[in-house]
Amino acid sequence: MTSANDQQAPPPSDHDAASEAQFGPHRFYAGEGGGSEQFRGARFDVADLRSARFTDCDLSGVTIRDGWLVDVDISGYLSNFTVNGVDVTDYVNAELDRRHPERAQFRDGKNSDDFRAMWNTIERLWEQATQRAGRLPEAALTEQVNEEWSFAQTLRHLVFITDAWASRTVLDEESPYHPLGLPQTWYPESEAAKLGIDLTAEPSYEEVLAARADRIAVMRRIVAGLTNDGLGRPCRRTPAPGYPEEDRPVFECVAVVMDEEIEHYRFAVRDLAVLASR
In sequence order, what DSSP letters do the residues of 218-276 get, joined into one string? Predict the structure, then answer.
């Protein structure tokens, strides 16, 4: 099974030619104030770029020559990624699959039974992660690691993902959004407010867990009722206002939820390890 967030390797192209930038693997537009082309094609010669941070940037065709790459952390979509003359793309993907076999299970899914098995895996992994988080001091659950979402914020985001890509699309509910859900960071605050979501809210962790448990139950009911014939049924509603207006089949919408669950689980356990080590 593949999701709308999965990107196929682009064909070789002239990266300097006019084309639409891809700002990270999970965005379909730059957002308010984003998309600057100021540094497109720029050259940095003998420059001190220590501690620079690039978030949701299109770095296609970037060349680094004779750089001093120490304590460098990179995440994102990789294709034809070469380090010192060695294409490490396949190695990175294979290592991620080794550490997180749920990735391979997700890719190999083909029918409704596979979706159900995948959701069982996701529930098991997040139950373990939530138990692990519960052993930390309460303050750690709202602490951000390297400017990433906290554990509580991650759960809130997954609440929104379920509302948008399961309840709104698959179940055809007009306004299923929980007020403590967190949309993607690029989603305009004014549009979130129209959905009844307050991005400045600071709910208790117990409130977050309750909302998360309810949305897990929603997904459990959806996957329990999936049939092979029904996977291709078109969903007429967009996940939320502002998303591209297009029909999406049930399997694509459910796959988006599962993809988000899998990827954010990987990020969450990474950051839980950091918090536990402090």
Answer: HHHHHHHT--TGGGGPEE-S-SSTTS----EEHHHHHHHHHHHHHHHHHHHHHHHHHHH
Taking each helix axis from N to C terminus, what angle separates 205-224 and 112-134, rounded to the nearest 10 degrees?
160
Cβ-based neighbour number of residue 93 at 10 Å: 13
* pTM of the predicted structure, to 2 decimals: 0.88
Strand partners, 83: 86
State how far the Cα of 68 lies from the Cα of 48, in Å rounded to an integer: 10
Residue ranges in 5-162 assigned as alpha helix (H): 89-99, 102-108, 112-134, 151-162
Q: Nearest CA to 274 among 156, 152, 144?
A: 144
Instruction: Please write the tens of the pLDDT for every residue from 122-171.
Output: 999 999 999 999 999 999 999 999 999 999 999 999 999 999 999 999 99
* Assigned superfamily of 106-276: dinb family like domain (1.20.120.450)
Any idea where the domains of the chain sit in the sequence?
106-276
User: What CA–CA distance (Å, rounded) separates 171 from 132?
Assistant: 32
In this structure, are residues 250 and 233 in contact, taking their beta carbons and an 8 Å threshold? yes
Measured in whole angstroms, the distance separating CA 25 from the mean position of its chain's CA atoms is 8
Could you tell me the maximum CA-CA distance found in the chain, to the nearest angstrom?
59
**Beta-ladder partners of 86:** 83
